[in-house]
Each structure stands twice: as structure tokens, then as C-alpha cells.
Design a protein that fits this description.
It is globular and about 40 Å long. It contains 8 helices and 5 strands.
């Protein structure tokens, strides 16, 4: 079903397409899909799971409050980089208006951020902080990957 959707629609990324403990299915899907395959429940921001994945997924969701500490989250990002994976710094359900994850994404050079739609104040706080940081960095800011994906500059 996912492969039909990928062929039919402009899907560029999918998260946890297989069972969270089925590494072989995840590897097969990642090889076949040709898009960004993100491990969320599959990796649970765990460095050891990323290092053991051996090609299951090609991106990791980094959730500092899932693993417990900023140091453990950074270790997971370093493991992902060692494996050649992309990453997304992500908020979790029930977040506050704290914008720390935006600073982590920028400081660590993680070019993707997942905080949800523009519907609630805790999400808007993070989006607005990302815009303030981009404005402050000017030409030094990382380019927004989706602009390239969708043919925008």
C-alpha cells in the first residue's frame, strides 16, 4: 500500500512504516522506497538502536524528552551521522512553549524540525523562534530543505 502511495503521490518522507521491532521489514522498505524513511518508535532516540539498525531507515527522529537527556539525544544524532542518516528534531505531544528544541536543531546542524501545524501556542512559539533564528543568522542559516524538495528557492 505504501509503495503505491509513493508512486502515486509526491511523498518524500514517511515515518515508522513497519512494526517498531521489525528491523528486516524496515530495511526492505527503506531499500525499495527511495524516499526518506524516518525511525521514530523504531529508534526511540536511542543511540544503541541506531548503531544496530544496519540500514533500517535512513533518518531518525530526535526527541530529547523521549530518551531523557540532551546528552543522550546528541549521542543518538552522532550515531545517525555515523550511519549516514538524516535527522529531524521533534517535539512531543503535550509540549510546553519552551523553544529549546529549536536551538538544539540549529546548534547541532539538524536541518529538519517537527513541531506540528500552526494550530496551538506551543507549536507557534517554536515556529516563531525558528524564524527569529533564521533572521538573526541571515546568509549563514541552513537552507530550508523543503524549498529544494518542492522546487522553491
Amino acid at each position: 500500500m505504501y509503495m503505491r502511495w509513493i508512486e502515486r503521490y509526491p511523498i518524500v518522507s514517511i515515518e515508522d512504516p513497519c512494526a517498531e521491532n521489525d528491523a528486516e521489514a524496515m530495511r526492505a522498505f527503506t531499500r525499495a522506497a527511495g524516499i526518506q524513511v524516518v525511525g521514530d518508535d523504531f529508534f526511540v532516540t536511542d543511540e544503541k538502536r541506531v548503531r544496530a539498525a544496519a540500514g533500517a531507515c535512513n533518518a531518525v527522529l530526535l526527541k530529547p524528552n523521549q530518551v531523557g537527556t540532551v546528552s543522550e539525544t546528541l549521542a543518538c544524532w552522532k550515531a545517525a551521522q555515523d550511519a549516514g542518516y538524516r535527522a529531524i528534531v521533534s517535539a512531543r505531544s503535550g509540549e510546553s512553549e519552551d523553544v529549546s528544541i529549536v536551538h538544539l536543531a540549529v546548534g547541532w546542524g539538524v536541518p529538519q524540525l517537527k513541531v506540528g501545524s500552526f494550530s496551538r501556542s506551543e507549536r507557534m512559539a517554536k515556529w516563531n523562534e525558528a524564524l527569529r533564528i533564521e533572521e538573526a543568522l541571515g546568509a549563514k542559516a541552513l537552507p530550508f530543505p523543503a524549498r529544494k524538495l518542492f522546487g522553491r528557492k
